[in-house]
Specification:
The chain has 448 residues and is mainly alpha-helical. The chain has a domain at 202-276: Leucine-rich Repeat Variant, CATH 1.25.10. It is 63% helix and 0% strand. The chain is built from 26 helices and no strands. Helix 4 runs parallel beside helix 6 (83-93), helix 7 runs antiparallel to helix 8 and helix 15 (236-245) packs antiparallel against helix 16.
Length: 448
């Protein structure tokens, strides 16, 4: 049985996003989130020609995948005729921090002709942009919060900015808001920072917060994120367990990852052992990203064990469609090791390049680009003929990067014995002077 995915696998999954069955939608979302970069082009096409239901799910998926190619199409969706599509696009853009996105969100939030739903989504996304380092959004957010002529829904939506300010700023603003002319604003300011109410039915407060993390309401799940962070290390085990029980929910797993990242390596060091107990691809992928973001080298080196565990899985673990969802987990683990300059798993990385039955993952190429040496050049040339145009351009960039770093010239003797497909790949990537080779177009990297 071949392990290469069917050509229509991704279009089929995107088509299922328009299903009336929530179970089919959830399964498709989980699979597309794992497929990642290879699904981006199809998801972008769905924004232009897909049904309303498909577009509704395609935009959050582009945000979850985080591929830079998704940014501009989502910015364009801010001008869609359907207000709901504009609101979803604004929410999705919160995951693409950049000056361009921050500017687009500011314009949308300031447009008083937009419906409340759209402007609130833009304000909340702008707050997320601020939290990610786009400080230029702060002034406009505070204007929305304090402007007594502003719509009530927009002002209440701007309250989330208070979580990102220091204590003195927050206290000063709350004191002013408690004297506001709008009763809803005054009430929210009074409740802000007040002691939490006892948990429902005397349940464990951590259990309640983990449940609220899955709420659709932005305010509730966002508040749960921050309250879980304050609970410290005791949330790590139950949070990982919740991720496993909701392993087909990309949004929930991503929110759980936000909590774990914020805990830091000291409070979340239990992840190093817990990751060995997780078998579901989506939670594993998020946990790998969390460990990488923490930057603790001892935890990152532990990802070598995860790579070995995936490599030892029998071929029968692959799905009937031929797509093995664990391969992207493997690729992401390689990328995190490469980011700290480690070659401890280099043989498995080369095996991934040499596997003729599987497509090369974008993260594998990013890892090879970071730590690859002359030995990996031939593996890349052998992989080049099997891939589509986009991946060929990416492989070409990686080959050129390694050659420049290792000071390997085109006439090096290692290339003289090349024949067949490898020779054609080399000539396309590094043409003789005066001949036109592969177009050198800038190619987005996987998100850090």
């Amino acid at each position: 049985m071949t392990l290469r995915p069917r050509a229509n696998e991704i279009p089929d999954l995107i088509g299922r996003l328009g299903s009336r069955s929530e179970a089919r939608i959830d399964a498709a979302r989980a699979r597309l989130a794992i497929i990642g970069g290879r699904a981006v082009e199809g998801l972008i096409e769905a924004l232009e020609g897909g049904s309303r239901r498909v577009r509704t799910h395609a935009m959050p998926l582009l945000a979850l995948i985080g591929d830079p190619r998704g940014r501009e199409p989502l910015v364009a969706m801010l001008r869609d005729r359907d207000p709901r599509m504009r609101a979803i696009a604004a929410k999705a853009l919160s995951r693409f921090p950049s000056p361009e996105v921050a500017c687009a969100l500011r314009r949308l939030a300031a447009d008083r002709e937009q419906p409340d739903e759209v402007r609130v989504a833009a304000v909340r996304a702008a707050i997320d942009q601020y939290a990610a380092g786009q400080e230029q959004t702060l002034g406009l957010i505070l204007e929305h919060l304090h402007d007594t002529s502003e719509r009530e829904a927009v002002r209440l939506g701007a309250f989330s900015i208070l979580r990102h300010l220091d204590g003195s700023q927050r206290r000063t603003m709350l004191a002013a808001l408690r004297r506001d002319a709008n009763e809803a604003v005054v009430e929210k300011a009074r409740r802000y920072g007040a002691p939490n109410q006892p948990p429902r039915e005397d349940r464990d407060p951590v259990e309640v917060l983990i449940e609220e993390l899955g709420e659709d309401d932005y305010g509730r799940w966002n508040a749960a994120v921050h309250r879980l962070i304050k609970q410290g290390r005791k949330v790590v085990v139950p949070l990982v367990e919740a991720m496993q029980s909701r392993s087909h929910d990309p949004e929930y797993c991503t929110r759980a990852g936000m909590v774990l990242k914020a805990l830091g390596p000291r409070r979340a060091k239990a992840l190093a052992d817990l990751i060995e107990t997780v078998d579901e691809p989506l939670p594993l992928q998020v946990l790998v990203e969390v460990i990488g973001a923490m930057g603790e080298k001892s935890m990152i080196y532990g990802l070598k064990d995860l790579i070995d565990r995936i490599a030892e899985r029998p071929q029968g673990a692959t799905e009937l469609t031929g797509f093995d969802m664990m391969q992207r987990v493997r690729a992401k683990a390689h990328l995190e090791l490469a980011r700290i300059g480690s070659r401890v798993a280099i043989q498995d990385l080369r095996d991934a390049l040499a596997d003729r039955d599987r497509r090369v993952e974008l993260e594998v190429l990013a890892a090879v680009e970071a730590i690859g040496k002359r030995d990996e050049l031939l593996d890349l040339l052998r992989a080049w003929p099997r891939e589509d145009r986009y991946m060929r351009e990416r492989i070409a960039e990686v080959v050129r990067t390694i050659m420049k770093r290792e000071r390997i010239r085109r006439n090096n003797k290692m290339f003289q014995s090349l024949a067949g497909e490898s020779r054609r790949a080399f000539e396309a990537i590094c043409p003789q002077p005066g001949r036109q080779g592969l177009r050198r177009a800038p190619v987005p990297r996987p998100a850090p």
